[in-house]
Specification:
homodimer, 190 residues, mainly alpha, Arc Repressor Mutant, subunit A, 2 domains, 10 helices, elongated
């Protein structure tokens, strides 16, 4: 296996264990057991469960980035704010392997300094990515000023979808959700 | 002590233990120890930790009801939707003893059938209360149709405030939050 394949294997195993036991209750030995790797084999790639979690989140972010790029390309006719709104709603309502882990991660950051740092790092990275994706337009300054509120709102809604299982209700009211997000974007323009 | 005083004492002790150990890890023995009551003394009032939790939530709801009533009285000059918006934003941003317990409770309902039933019961009860509080106006039908979305949104935002610690950020953007909620209310009117 290449380095990349091996790390992919470790991440998949870790996702499974995190979801079963919770991140907080998982130790490196659990990942060793799940991957059937030797101690040296595992530690060669990752020193801690936090490192693995970070890589999983980072992979999730890169997947999201690709999705955003394709939304931008598909929606050429829409206004800048409409495209941004579309990508935000997509993110809030999206359902994939990463979401339950991400929601679990968000629930842990308050108790765990290490994870909180990880969260800040990811937030910084996605802020940078969002700015890069959209910096071609005149409106980018509004985005900067409302980005913190928007990211907090997105993460809050993702938590609600997962914890309260209200994704279907939000999905059925997608148009209202879009209008709510446009309020944030338009408000910052004033 | 009167029955009411005793139950208040039990609820206060339980709140403390729930916050320390988490609801899921608390057993009746922990409450016995904290209250210094005998087994018979405690079980005379409550048969399970779920029963205590329900009473704590119910008390929180009644406090909220009072707050809503005073908001309605203080804001006589505002339109119906503006008053509703005001009470919703107040609820989302409110900070008191019940909120951390309520957020903890919301995080558990997915895993615990018993708590999920409790949640549905509380949701039904507050729906009824909200309708009673507002049924004097012409707009009450709009409220009914959007109530499920609104309650899901409120609970989602409460979770965000507690878990992500973004209450201050939301509070600083209170006007935007109000406009977002007006979108829901106005949308259902169309």
């Amino acid at each position: 296996m290449s380095r990349e394949e091996r790390e992919q294997q470790i991440k998949e195993a870790a996702k499974k264990v995190f979801l079963e036991k919770g991140f907080r209750n998982t130790v490196m030995d659990d990942i060793m057991q799940e991957t059937k790797l030797s101690r040296g084999g595992l530690y060669h790639h990752y020193k801690s469960t936090s490192e693995i979690l970070y890589d999983i989140m980072d992979e999730g972010n890169r997947m999201r980035e690709k999705a955003v790029k394709s939304t931008i390309e598909l929606r050429q006719g829409l206004s800048f704010n409409e495209i941004v709104t579309e990508t935000i709603v997509d993110k809030i309502l999206s359902e994939n392997d990463f979401i339950p882990i991400y929601a679990m991660f968000l629930q842990e950051i308050k108790q765990d300094k290490n994870l909180n740092n990880l969260y800040e790092k990811l937030k910084e990275k996605s802020t940078k990515t969002i700015l890069e994706l959209f910096n071609c337009t005149d409106n980018s300054e509004n985005i900067v000023s409302s980005l913190d509120l928007i990211i907090n709102f997105i993460n809050t809604m993702i938590l609600g979808c997962e914890i309260l299982q209200v994704r279907d209700n939000f999905r059925n009211n997608k148009d209202i959700l879009k209008k709510m997000i446009l309020v944030v974007l338009n408000n910052k323009e004033e």
